[in-house]
Inverse folding.
């Protein structure tokens, strides 16, 4: 099953055509992070752990560079992203999915074989303590201060660093996005928060409003910190919404999502991510929030999703990560064909990728099968 060997200029032309609204083919990319190095013994030859990378800037930079080399020299061969040595390596500070709970004081835990996580901290006896967190001065938050200090040490390391004969550039670190008010409520309170959503709506509403205001203030603080050239809109997610009915989402969560998007600079992209079976929510999200780009998880009926959100919304999604990790090349190829023939391409605004976040230890042959399906069935 040979894969087309596209040059970087050919790949760039495909993306240029896509964003100009005239794609010849669905483009394919993979969203990954350095966990695919840290959790793959074959790639993590030094045996680094997440905890080491989180506490040692030199290790963090080294892991980032190993990750970028793997992307450019291996993984991107089977995507429409550039391959080969870059003019300069781009690395960044990765805090994975702990940031917002950690911002509110939840301790970060490092469990062997897993990405970092946090534990709920709001028990029945101290659930009001969340409102003591100073959200008016985000850059003075202990977690933010620690991360910025870590970033500046990474900057010192990268200043004169070269890797594979190329200079290293450090991207500006920010927390302009949000995991979403319902999800952060569950992070901080545990599953009890879903019960409170119904049985104690006053507390649930106050906590979620607090989380939303904190996200808006934090984004503004990073805009001010990095200056006028830095105006990231900030993505919004809220994976726990998958557990709600559409009616409950509309009544309790949608107004808070509107607040977050309502505070961005006019004209900026509005991106929404929801993991899981969220197809019933996306049409309302796109219509009510003016969201023009959605990043999806699984399971989803892509044809139904396209009909629900219309032809003008960018949909990012594709083959389920378990299939990529454990399926045969034929199963992956057939699943790719099924998705690409579902009607999701209507309107020319579909990006084929994993659903959701590329996992460690996926055989490259499986990625090649996915790309081959994109080449064979992604044309317009």
């Amino acid at each position: 099953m040979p894969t087309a060997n596209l040059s970087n200029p050919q790949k760039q032309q495909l993306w240029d055509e896509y964003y100009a609204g005239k794609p010849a083919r669905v483009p394919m990319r993979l969203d990954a992070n350095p966990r695919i190095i840290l959790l793959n013994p074959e790639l993590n030859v030094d045996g680094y752990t997440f905890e080491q990378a989180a506490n040692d800037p030199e290790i963090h930079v080294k892991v980032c560079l190993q990750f970028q080399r793997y992307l450019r020299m291996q993984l991107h061969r089977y995507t429409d992203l550039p391959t080969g040595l870059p003019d300069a390596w781009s690395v960044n500070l990765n805090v994975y999915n702990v940031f917002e709970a950690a911002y509110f004081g939840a301790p970060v835990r490092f469990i062997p074989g897993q990405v970092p996580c946090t534990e709920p901290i709001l028990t029945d006896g101290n659930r009001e303590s969340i409102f003591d967190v100073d959200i008016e001065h985000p850059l003075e938050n202990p977690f933010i201060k620690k991360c910025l200090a870590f970033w500046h040490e990474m900057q010192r390391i990268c200043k004169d660093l070269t890797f594979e004969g190329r200079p290293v550039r450090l991207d500006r670190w920010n927390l302009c996005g949000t995991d979403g008010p319902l999800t952060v409520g569950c992070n901080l309170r545990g599953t009890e928060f879903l019960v409170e959503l119904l049985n104690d709506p006053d507390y649930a509403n106050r906590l979620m409003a607090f989380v939303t205001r904190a996200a808006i203030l934090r984004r503004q603080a990073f805009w001010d910190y990095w200056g006028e050239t830095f105006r990231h809109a900030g993505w919004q997610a809220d994976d726990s919404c998958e557990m709600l009915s559409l009616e409950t989402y509309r009544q309790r969560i949608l107004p808070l999502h509107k607040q977050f998007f309502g505070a961005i600079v006019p004209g900026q992209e509005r991106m929404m991510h929801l993991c899981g079976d969220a197809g019933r929510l996306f049409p309302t999200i796109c219509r009510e929030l003016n969201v023009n780009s959605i990043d999806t998880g699984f399971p989803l009926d892509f044809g139904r999703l396209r009909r629900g959100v219309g032809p003008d919304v960018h949909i990012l999604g594709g083959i389920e990560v378990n299939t990529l990790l454990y399926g045969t090349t034929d199963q992956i190829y057939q699943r790719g064909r099924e998705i690409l023939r579902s009607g999701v391409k209507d309107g020319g605004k579909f990006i084929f990728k994993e659903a959701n976040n590329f996992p460690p230890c996926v055989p490259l042959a499986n990625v090649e099968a996915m790309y081959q399906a994109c080449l064979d069935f992604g044309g317009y």
User: Anything to note?
Assistant: Residues 262 and 289 are 9 Å apart (CA to CA).
